[in-house]
Amino acid sequence: MSSDNPRILELRRRVQADPASIAFAQLAEECRRSGSNDEAVGIARAGLTYHPDYLSARVTLGRALIELGRLDEANVELDIVLKSAPDNLPANRAMAEIYQQRGQMKEALELYKRALQLAKYDPDLEQTVERIENVVSPPPPPAPKADTISAPIEDLFDFDTLIAQLGGRTQPSLDLKPDPPAMAAAPPAPSVIDAVELKEDDADPFSLLERQLRETEEQRPIEALSVLPPVDEQEQRVLAELEDWLSAIVTDRDNQPSA
């Protein structure tokens, strides 16, 4: 509390004894620093009636008004200071804060930069300037990495190999169903069972085993055909589009004038 501060008590005593004393400026600043902004405003206004050109007291008044949220009043006081002393560091910094609170970032950035030039070195001001610069002019997005840069589609395939695999066909073929001979299963290889002939006898376990093995051999081609996976419709469309695409490239290359 300002009432418990010995220095404030001494300054207040001096100002009360002499209202025209320039000690009012120190008293107003001590009150502002202690958080007694209303008292600081009253003391500063009273003292400025005697000393209107006391710029540091007017800066104190402006800063106390900012703390109270009375930005328009603070703007008036600080503008008076800056017209008389454009290089006044506290006034530039306080005016920049007014613009920042109003959302006028470009104006705030200009005054913060001026204050930083006047201060020469101030880490807090440097951080403030950098932060507002990122708001006013955001940095460009980072450039894509080399391995993410998109390449022309022709660079991603070996078209000569694909064309050779297509057999040089220039007309698209939409019928992707294999020819009937391709669907037929290859004849099974000769089985050793064919060389074994046992008399059919249900009581003979070897004869039963030979019969079961022979039946299994005869069923293998049928079973192999039955487990062939069906052609997926989506896969068929994709293959058809790829073939059309490659065939168009073949046609285009065939039509190129010879060197």
Structural class: mainly alpha
| Terminal Cα span | 95 Å
CATH superfamily of the largest domain: Tetratricopeptide repeat domain
Largest sheet: none
Q: Kindly provide the name of the CATH class of the largest domain.
A: Mainly Alpha
Going by CATH, the architecture of the largest domain would be: Alpha Horseshoe
Number of strand segments: 0
- Total helix count? 12
Number of discrete domains: 2
Give the integer mean of the pLDDT values.
Answer: 78
Fraction of helical residues: 55-70%
What percent of residues are in strands?
A: under 5%
Uncertain segments: 168-176, 222-227
CATH topology heading of the largest domain: Serine Threonine Protein Phosphatase 5, Tetratricopeptide repeat
- Anisotropy-based shape: elongated
Would you list the SSEs in sequence order as H and E? Answer: HHHHHHHHHHHH
Alpha carbon gyration radius: 47 Å
